[in-house]
Amino acid sequence: MYEYFKGIISKITAKYIVLEVNSIGYILHVANPYAYSGHLHQEAKVYVHQVVREDAELLYGFATEEEKQLFLNLISVSGIGPVSALAIIAADDNAGLVQAIEQKNITYLTKFPKIGKKTAQQMVLDLEGKVVAAGGSAESKAPVQTVDNQELEEAMEAMLALGYKAAELKKIKKFFEGTTDTAENYIKSALKMLVK
């Protein structure tokens, strides 16, 4: 029904922002309300999607068209509602999400909030080849050929479990792409790189 609203951001809470358009304040549920902090009391253009339920009419807001499209893709999956979709977007790993879907990496997908194994499998089934990371095209986000390197995947998962950040591990994974080794050796090498 609505494509976007342009108005003044008049309020920011932990779960939503209020966008004032022609003297009407619209509650927009967004992935990360505090991302709009720099625009408080300023004009902003927010892409929206309306969800009508028996007990409520809700508006969801997005910073970009790509983010909105990702949300629409996610809620098309059985088992993922608007709240879960926003939580996934809020994790701010859209490129990793798309890559995991394309590579059928169920383990990676279950790391997102409220995503179990069954829902992760459904995501792959419904979205493979259809979803684009927010802020890019399908071509620019095409996954690198790492599908077959199970040892590297296992090593990265182990490092993630140890508490290392996904952003750091992404760089390390990229460095090892195209190589073959055991998961144990990958972990040893990665630890040396992180200590430096």
TrEMBL record:
<dbReference type="GO" id="GO:0000400">
    <property type="term" value="F:four-way junction DNA binding"/>
</dbReference>
<feature type="region of interest" description="Domain III">
    <location>
        <begin position="147"/>
        <end position="196"/>
    </location>
</feature>
<dbReference type="GO" id="GO:0006281">
    <property type="term" value="P:DNA repair"/>
</dbReference>
<dbReference type="GO" id="GO:0048476">
    <property type="term" value="C:Holliday junction resolvase complex"/>
</dbReference>
<dbReference type="GO" id="GO:0005524">
    <property type="term" value="F:ATP binding"/>
</dbReference>
<dbReference type="InterPro" id="IPR010994">
    <property type="entry name" value="RuvA_2-like"/>
</dbReference>
<protein>
    <recommendedName>
        <fullName>Holliday junction branch migration complex subunit RuvA</fullName>
    </recommendedName>
</protein>
<comment type="function">
    <text>The RuvA-RuvB-RuvC complex processes Holliday junction (HJ) DNA during genetic recombination and DNA repair, while the RuvA-RuvB complex plays an important role in the rescue of blocked DNA replication forks via replication fork reversal (RFR). RuvA specifically binds to HJ cruciform DNA, conferring on it an open structure. The RuvB hexamer acts as an ATP-dependent pump, pulling dsDNA into and through the RuvAB complex. HJ branch migration allows RuvC to scan DNA until it finds its consensus sequence, where it cleaves and resolves the cruciform DNA.</text>
</comment>
<dbReference type="GO" id="GO:0016787">
    <property type="term" value="F:hydrolase activity"/>
</dbReference>
<keyword id="KW-0234">DNA repair</keyword>
<dbReference type="Pfam" id="PF07499">
    <property type="entry name" value="RuvA_C"/>
</dbReference>
<dbReference type="InterPro" id="IPR013849">
    <property type="entry name" value="DNA_helicase_Holl-junc_RuvA_I"/>
</dbReference>
<dbReference type="InterPro" id="IPR011114">
    <property type="entry name" value="RuvA_C"/>
</dbReference>
<dbReference type="InterPro" id="IPR036267">
    <property type="entry name" value="RuvA_C_sf"/>
</dbReference>
<dbReference type="GO" id="GO:0005737">
    <property type="term" value="C:cytoplasm"/>
</dbReference>
<keyword id="KW-0238">DNA-binding</keyword>
<feature type="domain" description="Helix-hairpin-helix DNA-binding motif class 1">
    <location>
        <begin position="107"/>
        <end position="126"/>
    </location>
</feature>
<dbReference type="GO" id="GO:0009378">
    <property type="term" value="F:four-way junction helicase activity"/>
</dbReference>
<feature type="domain" description="Helix-hairpin-helix DNA-binding motif class 1">
    <location>
        <begin position="72"/>
        <end position="91"/>
    </location>
</feature>
<dbReference type="GO" id="GO:0006310">
    <property type="term" value="P:DNA recombination"/>
</dbReference>
<comment type="subunit">
    <text>Homotetramer. Forms an RuvA(8)-RuvB(12)-Holliday junction (HJ) complex. HJ DNA is sandwiched between 2 RuvA tetramers; dsDNA enters through RuvA and exits via RuvB. An RuvB hexamer assembles on each DNA strand where it exits the tetramer. Each RuvB hexamer is contacted by two RuvA subunits (via domain III) on 2 adjacent RuvB subunits; this complex drives branch migration. In the full resolvosome a probable DNA-RuvA(4)-RuvB(12)-RuvC(2) complex forms which resolves the HJ.</text>
</comment>
<dbReference type="Pfam" id="PF01330">
    <property type="entry name" value="RuvA_N"/>
</dbReference>
<dbReference type="InterPro" id="IPR012340">
    <property type="entry name" value="NA-bd_OB-fold"/>
</dbReference>
<dbReference type="Pfam" id="PF14520">
    <property type="entry name" value="HHH_5"/>
</dbReference>
<keyword id="KW-0233">DNA recombination</keyword>
<dbReference type="InterPro" id="IPR000085">
    <property type="entry name" value="RuvA"/>
</dbReference>
<dbReference type="InterPro" id="IPR003583">
    <property type="entry name" value="Hlx-hairpin-Hlx_DNA-bd_motif"/>
</dbReference>
<keyword id="KW-0378">Hydrolase</keyword>
<dbReference type="GO" id="GO:0009379">
    <property type="term" value="C:Holliday junction helicase complex"/>
</dbReference>
<comment type="similarity">
    <text>Belongs to the RuvA family.</text>
</comment>
<keyword id="KW-0227">DNA damage</keyword>
<keyword id="KW-0963">Cytoplasm</keyword>
